[in-house]
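Study this chain:
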Amino acid sequence: MRFTSVLAVLVAISMTIASGLIHGRMSRRWGVSEELQRAGKRLETLQTNFGTWEMEASSALGDYARTVLESTGSLNRVYVNSETGQRVSVALVVGPAGPIATHSPEICFSSRAMKVLDERKPISLQLQGSKTHSSCGP
C-alpha cells in the first residue's frame, strides 16, 4: 500500500509540474520565443517587387494593434501590377495564434485606414421565439 501512495504522489507532482510548464510556454510567461521573433524580423526582408507586381504603398501596424495582437512583426502593403493596373492589398502579421485569431474587428479596421467612431457596446438581439442572443461587448 505504501508504494502505491508514494507512486500516486509522484504522479500528481509530475503532472502539476508538466501542466505548469505547458501553460507557461503557451501563455508566453517567459517571453516570446526566439523563433517567433526571427519570423517577425524576416518580414522586413520581403521583396517590394514580384515580377510585374510593384509595391505602391506600405504602412505600419499601429501601436495599439501591435500590442493587442502581441505581434513580433507585420507587413501592410498595396501592390500594383504594372501591366494590368490591378491592385492587391497584403497584410501579414506574425505573433502568437491566440491573439491574432481572436482579435476584435476594430484592430483590422484601423489597419485599413478606417476610423472607429465609437466604443464597442454589448447588444442583445431577439431571435425567433423567445431566444435572445447577446454579444460579449468590449
Observations:
- The radius of gyration is 23 Å.
